[in-house]
């Protein structure tokens, strides 16, 4: 990705970045055209699936929102010659923060209505009750769909995506296997292929990184870390990758960037206790103390856009799918230095997200899956930043290794 200097003011908010009117790159426009052509070609089929793949930050959600707005505009227009006229279409996403964002965006576009956007369980249960079938379902963050029943969330069937495909002629979905975060959503390419086998299916893979405005050495470093490797320190560049010996110093730096450009936040791996009990729960690292994000399901703005959340630490569930200008990331006690490999190792017993590891029935390698989920979470957290990623490691040995690596580069 080519470097991009910061503007005089802060970056646009998430609603603007995901706007249906946002200018697309040639690759993204090509994808949009391919989706539209696929929908027209298969509009009379019983079922068909269009799969959008790509790493975090390649603009998958931007494309899906753009084409959804266009198709809804044609559906609700007076142009009876359009193949999309009076089609019944929906966008579903199993992510409450992203749902807030989509519904907020819909208020600015006459072709979009809030009822067009639903969580998958709500949509599936409603459609089964009505006996109806949609023409096109767009599924953002499909890697968050449930792969097994969940009585707690009122999902009685066996797989979200399987049910969604049954309920639509065409299903367009965004999928990234590296963003799977729970046993209950334990997706793999094999499982995905088994669900679309025998159906007309087209896959498009986005490759260009748009979120992280950094040279390739930074992107390689992040990818390597999520594979338990510590690659050489990237060269100095406009993207600011920094390691901190003190968590409070990191927080002070993030507050400084937030005052200048906004949309800069603290986030952490799920290695610190947190419960939905109405109380505040805190992350403590040395002289640093800050509360986890407060649960506010009725809050209209997503966590990443609320000014008050500079005084909180977000989790992977808070920021997945969102851009931040600067990220202050605390790697908690589960992320350890491995002197034998000069890499990292993951201690799955230190992970505090118990909900992520419920529903292990049927998993062939639960321990290996736990590690994969935790590394996926680190990947999501590390790929939120547009202009700078500041990292503090709780493990003293890992912290020392990262800070020394940075000092050696700066002294060269």
Mind explaining what this structure looks like?
The protein is an alpha/beta fold and 412 residues long. 45% of the residues are buried. The protein has helices spanning 14-17, 26-41, 60-75, 96-106, 120-130, 160-166, 189-196, 216-225, 247-261, 316-319, 366-382, 396-411, and strands spanning 48-53, 89-93, 117-118, 134-140, 168-175, 201-205, 240-244, 264-268, 282-285, 288-292, 312-314, 324-331, 335-338, 343-346, 385-393. It starts with 13 loop residues before the first helix and ends with a helix. The chain has 2 domains: 14-205, Rossmann fold (3-Layer(aba) Sandwich), CATH 3.40.50.300; 216-411, no CATH class. Helix 2 (26-41) crosses helix 3 (60-75).
Characteristics:
2 domains, disordered N terminus, Rossmann fold, 412 residues, SLFN_3-like_DNA/RNA_helicase, AAA+_ATPase, alpha/beta, 33% helix, P-loop_NTPase, six-stranded parallel sheet, globular, AAA+ ATPase domain-containing protein, 12 helices
């Amino acid at each position: 990705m080519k470097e991009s200097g910061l503007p005089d003011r802060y970056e646009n908010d998430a609603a603007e970045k995901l706007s249906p009117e946002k200018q697309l790159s040639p690759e993204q426009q090509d994808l949009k055209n391919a989706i539209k052509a696929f929908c027209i070609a298969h509009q009379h089929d019983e079922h068909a699936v269009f799969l959008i793949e790509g790493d975090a930050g390649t603009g998958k959600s931007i494309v899906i929102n753009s084409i959804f707005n266009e198709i809804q505009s044609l559906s609700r227009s007076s142009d009876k010659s359009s193949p999309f006229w009076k089609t019944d279409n929906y966008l579903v996403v199993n992510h409450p923060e992203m749902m807030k964002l989509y519904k907020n965006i819909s208020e600015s576009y006459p072709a979009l209505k809030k009822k067009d956007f639903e969580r998958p369980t709500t949509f599936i249960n409603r459609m089964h009750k009505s006996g109806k079938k949609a023409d096109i379902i767009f599924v953002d963050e499909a890697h968050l769909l449930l792969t097994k029943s969940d009585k707690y969330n009122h999902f009685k069937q066996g797989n979200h995506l399987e049910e969604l495909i049954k309920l639509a002629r065409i299903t367009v979905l965004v999928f990234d296997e590296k963003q799977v975060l729970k046993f209950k959503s334990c997706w793999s390419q094999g499982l995905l292929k088994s669900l679309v086998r025998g159906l007309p299916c087209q896959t498009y893979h986005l490759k260009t990184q748009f979120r992280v405005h950094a040279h390739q050495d930074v992107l390689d470093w992040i990818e390597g870390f999520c594979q338990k490797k510590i690659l050489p320190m990237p060269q100095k560049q406009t993207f600011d990758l920094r390691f901190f010996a003190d968590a409070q110093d990191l927080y002070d730096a993030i507050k400084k960037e937030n005052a200048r450009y906004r949309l800069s936040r603290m986030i952490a791996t799920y290695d610190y206790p947190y419960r939905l009990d109405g109380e505040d729960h805190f992350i403590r690292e040395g002289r640093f103390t800050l509360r986890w994000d407060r649960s506010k399901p009725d809050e209209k703005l997503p966590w990443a856009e609320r000014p008050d959340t500079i005084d909180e630490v977000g989790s992977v569930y808070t920021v997945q799918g969102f851009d931040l200008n600067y990220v202050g990331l605390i790697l908690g006690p589960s992320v350890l230095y491995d002197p034998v490999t000069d890499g990292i190792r993951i201690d799955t017993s230190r992970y505090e997200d118990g909900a992520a590891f419920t529903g292990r029935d049927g998993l062939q390698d639960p321990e290996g899956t736990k590690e994969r989920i935790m590394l996926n979470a680190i990947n999501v957290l590390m790929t939120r930043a547009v202009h700078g990623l500041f990292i503090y490691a709780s493990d003293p040995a890992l912290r020392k290794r990262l800070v020394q690596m940075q000092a050696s580069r700066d002294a060269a």
